[in-house]
Structure formats: C-alpha cells, structure tokens
Amino acid sequence: MPDTPVRVLHVVSSLGLGGTEKAMQLLVAHLDRSRFEPTVYSPVDGERGVQLRAMRISTHVSDDLLTVLMKVRPDIVHIHRAGWPEPHALRSIRLANVPAVVETSVFGRPDPSPQAGVIDHTLFVSRFCLDRFAQTTGIDPDPARYSVLYNPVDTDFFASATPDERDFSIPSAGRISRADPGKWSCLALDFLPAVVRAIPDFRYHVIGSIPAAAAFVREHGLDRHVAFHEPVTTDREIATFMNSISLLAHANDAGESFGLVIAEAMACGLPVVTHPCSGLKDNAQLELVEHGVTGLVAATRQEYAKAVIFLLTNPDAARRMGQAGREKAATLYRAQTIAAKLETLYQELTIRKGIHR
C-alpha cells in the first residue's frame, strides 16, 4: 500500500455530455481517494468539467497536454479514446516519461502506430469489442494486456430514484440520444404508425431529436403522439424521464460499443427494445439486451412495432424483463464495482512498473 495516493491523470477529448465523458466522470468520482489522486485533462471544457470541479476533482483544460503532464507528474495516465491512432496525445505521454499508461478503447479499434507502444493495458467497454478486436487483428488478447471493463452506471441512484412497482400499463415509450443523425436509425421512427394504430393513446417521448425526426412526425400526422424534449444533463433528470415511460426504444444504425443509455434504462427497471447490426458494426446492445430476458430484439420495423406493442399490452412480461434488467445492471455495471476493478488494475500496474509512492 503506497504511503501517498497514486496520481492518475485521465485524458479525454472533451468534457461534454457524451457517454465517454460520463463514463470517465463516474470512474474518477468513485476512485478511493485514500489510494488514488485523480485529475482530468481535456482540450475542451464542458458540463462534465463543471460537475467534476463541483466534486473537487481538478481539471486541466488546455491544448498543451505535455505541459500538463510535466506539471501533474502522474504515475498513471488513463486515456479514453476511440482506439484508432491518436499520435499527438501518445507522443506527449511518451515524452513525459509517464510510468504507466492505460487506455479505454471506446470502440475497440486497433492502433498499429508506433506511438501505441506506450500503452501498458487496454480496456474494452464490452465483451463484444474485445472479441471483435481479436477477430480482426488476430491478436490473442492476453488478460495481462487486454481486458473488459464495462462502463459504470450509478445503479444505486437509479434504484432509489425509480419505483420498485412501476405501472407498465402506461402506453408510452422513450428514446434518449444526442441530437446527431449518426445516433439514429429509421427503426426509431418507422415503428410508430403501426403502434399508433394498435394503441391509439400511445405516446413517444424523445430526447435528442433531429430534423428528419420532426419531419417524419409532421408528414405522418403523429404530432399528438410524439413529444420532443430538451437534452438532460444529470442522472436525476434521466431518472425523471425514465419514470414517465414504460420501455426504452433504442435504435442506432451504427450500433453500440456498450450502450450507456440502455444500461441506465435497465438500472431504472425498464425493458428495452433494440435491434441487431450487421457485419462488424458495433453490436454490444445485444450483450446488454437479452431477447426475452431484459428486453426484445427486433430486426425489421414490423418486428420492432410488434415488440413495442407486446410490451405495452403485456405489463407482467414488461415488469419481469424490467426487473431482470435492473438486476443485471446492478450486478455488472454498478459504478462502485467497476471502479474497484479499475483500482485493482492500477494497483497491479504500480507493482509491475515499480511505481512507489
């Protein structure tokens, strides 16, 4: 056990409201401060930066990572990135002679660049990402070098902020994403007409609308069935939104390398409807949503509409899947559990790299 906390600098491309930034924030917030001293670097500030500083976690917002590294002198750098080459950041880390480097590879992509040799351990946010990495690179993922660490979710908070006995007879579904066309699929809209015909008082609540969604609603005369909401910034706002719906309708043509909103809906006790992606696209949504267990998987708009109708007209099945999702999230994604696993990795690295504090 070190006499003083191990200094860990988390590096992320921005401090906005994206899932990568949120996962980083939750990891940092739940580290044991008696053992680890976390700080955060990003070239771009944002709402996560405000929240981190409110928790008395230091942030460094600058275009000059090397200068920050020389000032902080971290024992470990933990970089959160897509996975593909980012030579500037890794070059700065090498120049600063950082003793140990961990990366969270958000999309599990390989980085064959020479700069990637500075990385001591790669974390994948799902088993799917690790398996795809091995499949596409031919690399045998030695656990000492590669492992899975799911994104953390504040499951304790969501359990306390959502009802144990939810009314699943409320005919409403919800969707949360960034207002980015790349986060959408036609399935997110094409299921609506069939559901409205079957359930005339159905309501669809959407956070993160795009112009195409608003146009679809107008063109199909669905205005009274669809409500567009402003973005949310806190877990409390997310819980309030989840409490207004009976299921999460997930649809994203790019798929999910993890699926943070899905995991949060599960933590709130909601069943999830999602879809598979083809080829080597991200497909971890199927790792979270087990068909018939924590939700339903639908490949076409007809299947998707049937899945939504089934859950809204079979409240006992919806309740069973929602409870199974809540239990799965608490077992696998609980922030405290994930942070403890990360602490174990950090501790192993300090021993392996001879870091003494």
UniProtKB/TrEMBL annotation:
It holds the Pfam family Glyco_trans_1_4. It comes from the Bacteria. Keywords: Glycosyltransferase, Transferase. SUPFAM superfamilies: UDP-Glycosyltransferase/glycogen phosphorylase (SSF53756). GO terms for molecular function: glycosyltransferase activity. PANTHER family: COLANIC ACID BIOSYNTHESIS GLYCOSYLTRANSFERASE WCAL-RELATED, GLYCOSYLTRANSFERASE. Belongs to the glycosyltransferase group 1 family. Glycosyltransferase 4 subfamily. This is Glycosyl transferase group 1. It comes from Pseudodesulfovibrio aespoeensis (strain ATCC 700646 / DSM 10631 / Aspo-2).
